[in-house]
Amino acid sequence: MKSMIAKYFRFRELGTDLKTETLAGFTTFAAMAYILFVNPNVLGVVGMNKGAVFTATALSSAIGCFIMGLIANYPIALSTSLGLNAFFSYSVCIGMHIPWQTALAGVFVASIIFVILTAFKIRELIINAIPADLKNAIGGGIGLFIAFIGFQNGGLIVANKSNLVGLGSLHVGTTWLTIFGLVLTIILFTMRVPAAILIGMCTTAIFGMATKLIPLPTKIVSGMPSLKPTFLVALKNLDKINSLQMLVVVLTFLLVTFFDTAGTLVGLCEQAGFIKNNHIPRIGKTLVADSSDMVIGSLLGTSPTGAFIESSTGISIGGRSGFTVIVTGLLFLIGGFFSPLLSVITNQVTAPALIIVGILMAQSLTKIDWKDFAIATPAFLTMIGIPLTYSVSDGIAIGFIMYPITMIATKRAKEVNGIMYALAIIFLFFLWILNEN
């Protein structure tokens, strides 16, 4: 059995083994398990049934991971995007006064277009057209974004009326829990202890329960809530996609999801060392997996799914094949029944892991040609734009708009791929649409 798994997932070729892949799968799940609880809360503000959303999140995540692992053989987990669920609730449903049922239909239509673009290899063509320097900037920018999320989730960085953000209070117990986990994980990582991130997370969770900063679970097992309130609601509301406003919603979902997922995929593949000659092997299969899961997620009843940034935690401890996310997918299925136990994986437990991963991903910034100002400028704007706008797609938009401008200014317009000119125009329209709404 072990030999069959090793052969199918090409362990020897990828320089990995069953133990490493399994550990990476557990680590990835531990880092992203919070989405099972966060997603129902975010979508619940617009009236969606939280129990149904919980189940839809668990099932769509599991199915997406299985498809990614079996078809693309990449350690990239799929789940409901944290940024896109907020966009779904606050921008579309609340901001544009669109019922969640209609918005879900919009997600379904956008996901079908997604599949069509993938089938005709348009997404693959666009990703391969992105210059290597900008791909490295995306990877580094996502690293900064992940670290920023970690600092925020752990209470080390908080909102500040004067300066937007500031240092969190050191008089809060949970903040010290984050500091404990961060220092411990840094020490373990520096000493090259295997599975340093996972050990750090488990130790922090145990320490949190021992100090009563994390409440003990009240029970161990619970059944999955019914999917009935959200299941196939998207199909039942397709007739509502009949206005200019809804076409704009569909287009916006498509653009945001396209580049949010593309940016995350590029960043993760850069971290894992998969990119060869500015191309990602098997990128077509990877895109098929994530576009298929978006369709499945919309039918089950959740906002857009996509490549999950926290996959970087599993990659950081050696996950290199699809078996990593097969394990993660199985844990999502199990997690649906053991939801009370998942409550001990708090933001303070995962925050140190995200900060460490941010450090690791920032290494791609060394590959950018910083001496060439025409390249350095859009790369820097992409890198800094992702965390400052709190959006992978917005950060990419800023950098991609600037790229042809600096190249034209230095009389190197012919070096720019035609697709990059088209993307700059699309992104201008994209940002304008988001600003209007």
From TrEMBL:
The keyword Signal is assigned to this record: no
One Pfam family named in its UniProt record: Xan_ur_permease
Entry keyword set: Cell membrane, Membrane, Transmembrane, Transmembrane helix, Transport
Stored InterPro entries: Azg-like, Azg-like_bact_archaea, NCS2
Annotated GO MF terms: purine nucleobase transmembrane transporter activity
Mode of membrane association: Multi-pass membrane protein
Subcellular location field: Cell membrane
UniProt-recorded name of the protein: NCS2 family permease
Source organism per UniProt: Acetilactobacillus jinshanensis
